[in-house]
Amino acid sequence: MDNAVLFSYKIDDRSYVSFIKREIHNLVTTAGFSPQKVGEIDIVVSELTSNLIKFAETGELLYRLANDDKGVFLEIYCLDKGKGIHNLSRMMQDGISSSDTLGQGLGAIERLSSRSSIFTVPDSGTVVYSKIYQKEPDAVIRQSNINFGAVQVCAPGETVCGDGYSMKKLGNGIQFFMGDGLGHGINAHEAVTEAIASFTSCRATSPVEVLRYIHENVKKTRGLVVTIAYLEYTAQKWYMCGIGNISTSLYTGLVPKNYMPYNGIVGHNIPRTLNDSVMEFEKYQTLIMHSDGLRARWNLSELPGILKYEPNVISAALYKDNARHNDDMTVFAAKINL
Q: What is the SS3 string spanning the chain?
């Protein structure tokens, strides 16, 4: 699982846009994207930033270069808290504009992206997502029962992130990890990196046993808070255990079940008695986990239709509305299509 963090740029002035365009242009050129792909990316970035300035005046652009089983890709999120798009389907048509321009921006983004999505709430803002592969993957797309996505941004002024997430297939199920090293910066990053390595190597299915294993392996680090969630397919149950303030919610439709973790710090002091919490698995659930870089008081009912979108758009929408911007910020979502 790729934990590459997203670069974050606040956009509140048109003069700053050219700098961001140049940064992304140089990034993908150095990464070996073809001249044609680089040109297409230039267009996508130009449309995203110009629309942001034009319609919302201020917002945030997130981007990263990463890879998955389909290859190297550029991922971009454009976020704003503006007026939203009141008739999205109409605005996606070429030649339609609300600002007397050619109206090709949203359509161009969709055509030139390997994957793209737009989530908008009138008078609340918009998330525009674009993913562009270095080389287009085969047209045949494998359907997965577990679709996941995350938005991860460093604390302001930092170059490494003290948060981390991971998942692995284990036994007849799948296990999820979310951790947050104490504070931020290199020491927090070292703590969560060691914890992810321990999580990956541990073969225990019980989240309690996984936490105890991680605890023993990160004692030389600053320490961290961690929540482990395990979905066991045969039993059709979730098993969860966490120590510290990782927020974990399990959504069936818009009805959440929130997990309450134990107090303590993994690697330093954990409760002597720990028990796995057990929740029933239901079809088409969505797991959402995030660090305390996001406010904990949010409600998906305020984002109408969001569960129809892919997990990274869900993560981006929650980040947009709830990021504190004073710590590392990570939100992870997984849609379980069983």
A: CCCCCCEEEEECCHHHHHHHHHHHHHHHHHCCCCHHHHHHHHHHHHHHHHHHHHHHCCEEEEEEEEEECCEEEEEEEEEECCCCCCCHHHHCCCCCCCCCCCCCHHHHHHHHCCEEEEEEECCCEEEEEEEEECCCCCCCCCCCCEEEEEEEECCCCCCCCCEEEEEEEECCEEEEEEEEECCCCHHHHHHHHHHHHHHHHCCCCCHHHHHHHHHHHCCCCCCEEEEEEEEECCCCEEEEEEECCCEEEEEECCEEEEECCECCEECCECCCCCCCEEEECCCCEEEEEECCCECCCCCHHHCCCHHHCCHHHHHHHHHHHHECCCCCEEEEEEEECC
How large a percentage of the chain has pLDDT more than 70? Answer: 92
Cβ 130 vs Cβ 73: under 8 Å: no
Determine the Cα–Cα distance for residues 314 and 336; give it in Å rounded to an integer: 14
Segments in the chain below pLDDT 50: 95-103
Tens of pLDDT, residue by residue over 227-241, are 999 999 999 999 999
Entry pTM: 0.92
Burial class (CB in 10 A: 0-12, 13-18, 19+), 263: exposed
Q: In whole angstroms, give the CA distance from residue 193 to residue 273.
A: 26
